Amino acid sequence: SQNYGHFVISPLESGYGITLGNALRRVLLSSLPGAAVTSIRLSGIHHEFSAIPHVREDTTQLILNVKQLRLKSHSEDPVRLHVEITNEGPVTAGDLIAPPEVEVVNPDQYLLTADSNDVDLDFELVVSTGRGYSPAEERTRLPLGEIPVDAIYSPVKKAAYRVERTRIGQQT
Question: Which residues 6+ apart lie within 8 Å of 60 measured at CB?
Answer without folding.
Answer: 48, 49
